[in-house]
Amino acid sequence: MRRVALLLLAAAATAGPPLRSPRIDAAVAAVQPAVVKVYGVKGFRGVFGYMTGVIVHESGLVMTRGSVTLDEAPQIKCHLNDGRRFVAELVRYDRKSKMVLLRLLADPGAKFPVAKLGLSDNVRPGQFVLLVGNAYRVAEGREPCAVNLGVVSAITSPSMRAGFADSFDYPGEVILHDAMNNPGVYGGPLVNLKGEVIGISGTLVESRETNVQLHYAVPIDDLKPFLEDTLARPDAGKTYTGPGDKEPEEEGPGEPGYHGIAVLKAGINLATPAYVDRVAPGSPGAKAGVLPDDLVLKIDRTSVKNWKTFDKMMAKYRAGESAQLTIKRKDEVKVLTVTFVAKP
Questions:
Q1: DSSP letter at 142?
Q2: Are the CB atoms for 177 and 131 separated by under 8 Å?
Q3: How confident is the model at residue 160 (pLDDT cuts 50, 70, 90)?
Q4: CATH of 128-243, one of 1.10.760.10, 1.10.1130.10, 2.40.40.20, 2.40.10.10
Q5: Average pLDDT of the segment spanning 207-234
Q6: Which residue spans within the chain are E strands per DSSP?
Q7: CATH of domain 255-339
Q8: pLDDT at position 171, please?
Q9: pLDDT digit string (tens) for 236-274?
Q10: Which residues, in sequence order, are CB contacts of 153 under 8 Å at separation 6+?
């Protein structure tokens, strides 16, 4: 009996997780020097004035999430892992992903440690990941940023889940994970166990219906064209809409594109499905083949929950951009491409 008890104790001791993991240590050491603590405006109305970024080019380009923290800041400050501090300027904004590129203002020819960008296409559920960031602003100077270990839950679009459509602002698929997130970590890198960046952390999303919270990252493969285009065209406009985009300033900054589709609105407090009420003759919607009584199911790969969701999502597209509308017409499902134009 004593021998059995000793065997059980030995088995329990060996079954637990290791106290240290050389592989995780190596991954953290690889990415930490390139993680940047970003400071913008002082916090107000529940907005935190700090977040995280990651250096993606040796010239000092930092990728992070766009935020009022940066938009309203008279001066953006960045603290590096080794204690160096720099003022940064906003270089470019990606309209789709809500990510931005900052440039550290350093001496000419200065080079910075760069995070290695991995591949997000081969990320799978069950994979261990690390989320690195300025959690709760505990790392002010030379202190390393906080590291949280998590597991990838799914590769999906949270807006397709009930209750998330109105609070989630990225139309593509994202990496869902359970590594702890908070406002200070927004814009920080999601890293695999090789120390490679596979995503950039987005905001914490919460379902109004179930109070469930989702932690997500925008896949790095979706963001590489943004970086590559910015490096290839340093004189391009400050707003990026896609590879080879035209200067969006010519369209009018922030002006939604015109599509000519009006959906049925039964009442301001009734979130009815997105049935097409009318289509303006000669409009992009009419040219795409949209007809009255069509039910809009998806915009690109994101489900349309109701008419409010339809209006909100369509307002994000600008002139020259296109959206694929999945519609149901009687018993038939069609995919129609609407190309937005400037408002007449």
A1: S
A2: yes
A3: low
A4: 2.40.10.10
A5: 85
A6: 35-39, 50-57, 61-65, 76-79, 85-94, 99-104, 128-133, 146-156, 174-177, 189-191, 197-201, 205-206, 213-219, 239-240, 261-263, 276-279, 295-299, 302-303, 322-329, 332-339
A7: 2.30.42.10
A8: 75
A9: 888 887 765 554 444 444 578 999 999 887 544 456 788
A10: 125, 176, 177, 178
Six token digits for residue 192: 């695999």
Q: Residue 340's pLDDT is what? A: 94
- Whole-angstrom Cα Rg for the chain: 23
Please give the full DSSP string across 102-125, using - where no structure is assigned: EEE--STT-----PPB--STT--T
pLDDT at 7: 46
Q: Where are the domains of the chain?
A: 32-104, 128-243, 255-339
How would you label 308-322 residue by residue, b for 16+ Cβ within 10 Å and e otherwise?
bbbbebbeebbbbbe
Strand-strand pairing, 205-206 and 197-201: unpaired
Contact between 117 and 196 under an 8 Å Cβ cutoff? The reply is yes
Mean pLDDT of the chain: 82
Say whether 252 sits in a helix, a strand or coil: coil
